[in-house]
Amino acid sequence: MTTTGPSSTPTEADTIGRVLVVGAGAMGSQIAMVCALAGRTVHLVDTDPQTLTRAGAELRARMDSRVARGRLGAQERDAAFAHLHLGTDLDAAAADVDLVIEAVVEKIDVKTELFRRLDRVTPDHAILASNSSSFVPSRLAAATTRPDRVCNLHFFNPALVMACVEVVPGEATSPTTTATAVAFTRALGKEPVVLDREVDGFLANRILNAVRDEAVRLYEGGYASLESIDLACRTALGHPQGPFELQDLTGLDIAWFTKTARYAETGDPADLPSASLDARVGAGHLGRKTGRGWYRYDDDGTKTPAPDPVTGA
Ligand SMILES: NC(=O)c1ccc[n+]([C@@H]2O[C@H](COP(=O)([O-])OP(=O)(O)OC[C@H]3O[C@@H](n4cnc5c(N)ncnc54)[C@H](O)[C@@H]3O)[C@@H](O)[C@H]2O)c1
Q: Is the pTM of this model over 0.90?
């Protein structure tokens, strides 16, 4: 992907020395590590202490594995962990940050409430960014007194690996905020892709969703199995993973929330979650994180298509 948008200077990136990442789930934990590896002081905060413990252990294992494979120096690893602070006290962690990256559950009321609080407890100069996959920054900016310093920084899963970060300015985002976000993204070693105008879902996921919707139509219409559809996307279109395999990685619940939120806005039945997605999410089959989604993942590493929990088909 090529980089577009405002030019950046190292000075702009350097203004972000201290980062707060809120939400230590699949995205927030790795985003925090990316920032720590780039030498930033990072606070990673979650309301759930167990999630923090799990995130810390997973990051430690990932970084140790990089060191063992010669892809990261032991000193760099240790320096990054020295920069990374995990905790549950949001207000204390927010007190002296330059940038917040919010990565909590994809629910607009939870995010809005959090942005209202962040606006109160962060320094005035701090940029408040959301990693939301769908909500445009203007919706969150409205909960703050600093809409010029609100934008989306949309990382992709897994954030430690994926290069693209969509930088999404809202209606009121200042050019300085966008330029700083671009420079910071580059300083992380990522590829900023800047939107000219906000649109929900942004770029990559809107394109992916069109592919995914067609994949589900073909599957529910009985034209082909999950495996055949994934195989076609991999071998004919050059996608590294098929749409069902990818959704198992990113989480079926994320897709369900995104669709439901979109339907709430448009009222268009075409935006509702498909029956097969609805059935799986209703049964708690959320993808790899629960061991079962479109596919079932067994302990021995095998992956087999999982029947629909409602129809059994
Ligand atoms: N999963 C993906 O592939 C992906 C990719 C890009 C962006 N995103 C976006 O990133 C965000 C997080 O997604 P995820 O997959 O990491 O979710 P997740 O469910 O794995 O993690 C969310 C975390 O937020 C915590 N949390 C909830 N409310 C909180 C609060 N008020 N304060 C602090 N912590 C709170 C939860 O305890 C949980 O640990 C969502 O907005 C999602 O749309 C997800």
A: no
